[in-house]
Design goal:
The chain has 272 residues and is an alpha/beta fold. 35% of the residues lie in helices and 17% in strands. Strand 1 and strand 2 form a beta hairpin.
Length: 272
């Protein structure tokens, strides 16, 4: 048996990689040895997710008690999360006290790009530093990052997750809402190939639309695919480079911070 998955409908299972990927080269590892222990692996992984949910709930209550609204910002690598986040800080930093929890496997490069843009505080979590180099943030990692943030001095926390279209959507971290940045350079089919991620998003920022005249990208097809997976997601057309759509995105974030100020929906993280 192979890797544990959470499917688009919320169910979970362990898949045999030899059956799913018959063209895999043998050097990636022979999974046949799990044939007699597959159910045990499922049980262990389900227990791990349950423990993650417990810590996520604790994080959510801690943030709510401090009056902070948290947004989990996700995307593939290179979709433009950090560029959009810098534009966000430049636009809202003077009116909304924004903290950033910057997640990456290694380095502080993204956090360095945000320095001086208007964040009230930035906390860096490298998953390679004691967390096994995971390709996502989980609730325990976020808890460690919260320790380095002055939560009572914040209105809004933006958690920039590790760039990945799979795992970040599977792990609650204590967020109140989930946002996804999608780049038009990625292809119309991505909602169909990565439904868990797109289904988990409350808002999808379609980024790099300034490149549309230069790409063979069918926007209508993408929007239809997205609607098929997540018909309730808000869609914001944007270009972090030119600034188009940034005001609409920032307006959505302001609405989130005002929910915290009014006590709406306290400590109720989104579930994929």
């Amino acid at each position: 048996m192979g890797r544990f998955h959470v499917h688009a409908d919320g169910t979970s299972s362990v898949h045999d990689h030899d059956l799913e990927h018959p063209d895999h080269d043998r050097h990636v590892g022979d999974h046949a040895g799990y044939a007699e222990t597959g159910q045990t692996r499922v049980t262990i992984l389900q227990n791990l997710l349950s423990e993650n949910d417990r810590v996520a709930d604790d994080n959510g209550h801690r943030l709510a008690a401090a009056g902070v609204r948290a947004v989990n910002l996700m995307s593939s690598p290179g979709a433009g999360k950090t560029t959009l986040l810098r534009k966000t800080l430049e636009t809202l930093g003077g009116s909304v006290r924004i903290g950033v929890l910057e997640g990456d496997i290694a380095t502080s490069l993204d956090a360095d790009r945000l320095d001086g843009a208007g964040a009230a505080a930035i906390s860096v979590v490298n998953t390679s530093a004691g967390f096994g180099g995971e390709c996502h943030l989980d609730a325990v990692m976020v808890r460690s990052g919260l320790e380095r943030l002055p939560l009572p001095e914040l209105d809004l926390l933006i958690i920039e997750n590790v760039g990945n279209l799979v795992c970040p959507a599977e792990f609650r971290v204590g967020e109140d809402a989930r946002a996804m940045v999608f780049s038009v350079t990625e292809g119309e089919e991505k909602p169909l190939k990565y439904p868990v991620m797109f289904r988990a998003a409350d808002v999808v920022v379609v980024n790099k639309i300034d490149l549309l005249p230069h790409l063979d990208f069918d926007l209508d097809e993408f929007l239809a695919n997205l609607s098929g997976v997540n018909p309730t997601a808000r869609v914001i057309m944007a270009s972090a480079r030119s600034g188009e759509g940034v005001d609409e995105w920032c307006g959505w974030l302001v609405d989130q911070s005002q929910m915290a100020a009014t006590g709406s929906d306290p400590g109720a993280p989104t579930t994929p």
